[in-house]
Each structure stands twice: as C-alpha cells, then as structure tokens.
C-alpha cells in the first residue's frame, strides 16, 4: 500500500510541515506561522529536499505577509523577511525560485500568493509522476525489461518533494511495473536521509531495500550488485553538471568505472540556466556538530575540527541521463546544454492537467 504523508501543506493560518528530523521514529507535524520559525525549519531540515524547499519558499511568502499584517510591518520589513526565507539554504535553486515565483503577487494580497504556491505544489506532484514514468521507461529501455537492482543516495522521495518523489518516483514507477528486485539505500551521512527517510518511504511502499554505509556504494557498484543508480538533484547547471547530496560524486565515479548508468531525476525547476557549469554552485557548509556527534553523543574526540560540505557536484560527463518531466536527456552523450525552451516545456508539462 502507498502511504504518503504530506510533506508540506497550507493549514489555514500557517504552513504545516512534516518534521523530518524525528523520522522514522515519530511522525509529527509542526505549523509555522512566522518567518523565524520557517527559516529555522528549513535550516534544521524539518522540511528539506529541493522541490519541497521550493514549495515551502513559495508558501513562506504568505507566512511573511500574514506576520507583517499581525505585527504592522512596513513594506521594507516584509521584503527583508521574504529575503530571509529565500536565503535560508543556498544550494537548492528551488528555494529561491519558489519565492521568486510568487513574490510579484504580494501586492495582490495573500490569497493570490497562496493560490500560486498551491499551484506550484500541484505542479510538483504532477511533474514527479511524469519524471517517474519517463525514468522507468528510459531505464527499462536501456537495461532490458526485467527486475532491476537500484542504488540510491540521500532521499529524493515524496519527503523531498510535494509528493511521489523524483529519484524515488522513478523507483516507485519501476516497482509499479514489477521491475524492482532490490534497492540499495546509501544511509547518507551525516544526517542519514537514506536510512531514516528513503528506507522509511520504501518500506511503507512495500519496495525491497537494504540500507548500506555510504562507503559501501562503490564496491556494491563495482561488484556488479547494482544495475543502475538513481539520484535527485539540488541544482543543475546549463551544461548538466549536477549538485546533489555529498557522496553523489563517489557514486557517479563508481558507476562510470563499472559501466552502469547514473540517472539524475529532477524537475526543470532544479535547472539553473543562469549557471553555465557546476563551478558556480554555492555549496552549503553545515555545522561541525553534524559530523562530530549523533543525537548529542560525540563520535569524535573533543576539540577536533570537521569538514561538512552538504553537497558535491557531479560533472555532466558522469551523468548518463537527466530525466525531467519532459523526458530523458542523455547528458554524458552530449544532449545538452539545457535550454530555456526545455524549461518552458517542463513548466507547461507540470501545469498540464493529467490526461489519465
Ligand atoms: C529531490 S531533491 C532531494 C535532494 O535534496 C537533498 O538535500 P537535503 O536533504 O540536504 O535537503 C539531497 O541532496 C537530495 O538528493
């Protein structure tokens, strides 16, 4: 049975978020009604994942407007608060894009902003279903119509989006066709989005999976235990260079060496056409404590330093296929650069009513 729990939704007077910091042990929600609480929720990964951040950013404009009305802010204070939401995390382009999409509607009132944010949420779910189907089509066409062993990194599932997921959307589509033998789930240190979140989603969906240490991924791939790796993205440059959770580059290098496909599943809203290549991707550096302890228990000697980049950039030459809502692009084979025309088609596909 499919048991999706809404990740982000408007709840009358605030933004209701599934608190992903307490999964899988507890399923709890928080409702944020002010900008400081929303920024904190984004920075602590209560809500996380590029598309989900885009939706949270869009609704965040309405949160700021409601707070401005309650507290009597002037326009400058409102604009500053909206910018704080927009800049809460730097790497996923979707957060800023979500804010920018609805910000021009501020003068039309909170109702217009909420309607636009809800439209973005609905488009994301439709787009993810399209990504899932297109990704499954490409993978089965490439590898043969048989049950497959998939490797994933981090969480690019329903929890990272408004629903269904991107990379896990592909896995869900394959599973729906009876074409998943096993999913190797990288635990994804330091915040364990794989073991805590991806394994939770797959178990609830009845999809067979095994959690592994991140360090096991290259040998799993080079020992021939996986047929394909499918990952999400946080920002894709115009040439196809892809920023994703730290450790994705290692998976990509192993896939290239082993000759298995690396599939990036992402909506066009994750493509940053203003960025010619991956050198300009802002890489979020996160707190040392995430590396040096778990649940407050030290895992390293006191006083040592930590290096905690939250993302890395996989060069386009290692991306076998980028699957968006408009279909696959065989990036490493040169089907780039990504174009504004493609982005427009993607937006139209997400906005299109489902045909059945
Ligand atoms: C579908 S985008 C998911 C993407 O976001 C994750 O980062 P974080 O958990 O820090 O928000 C990770 O990079 C996933 O691949």
UniProtKB/TrEMBL annotation:
Pfam families: IF-2B (PF01008). Substrate binds at residues 48-50, 89, 193, 244-245. The keyword Nucleotide-binding does not apply. The active site is at 234 (proton donor). Its EC number is 5.3.1.23. SUPFAM superfamilies: NagB/RpiA/CoA transferase-like. Residues 332-356 are annotated as: Disordered. The keyword Ribosomal protein does not apply. It comes from the Bacteria. It is an enzyme of class 5 (isomerase). Keywords: Amino-acid biosynthesis, Isomerase, Methionine biosynthesis. GO terms for molecular function: S-methyl-5-thioribose-1-phosphate isomerase activity. InterPro entries: IF-2B-related (IPR000649), IF-M1Pi (IPR005251), IF_2B-like_C (IPR042529), Initiation_fac_2B_a/b/d (IPR011559), M1Pi_N (IPR027363), NagB/RpiA_transferase-like (IPR037171). Residues 340-356 have a biased composition (Low complexity). Catalyzes the interconversion of methylthioribose-1-phosphate (MTR-1-P) into methylthioribulose-1-phosphate (MTRu-1-P). HAMAP family: Salvage_MtnA. This is Methylthioribose-1-phosphate isomerase. It comes from Actinomadura graeca. The lineage of its organism: Bacteria, Bacillati, Actinomycetota, Actinomycetes, Streptosporangiales.
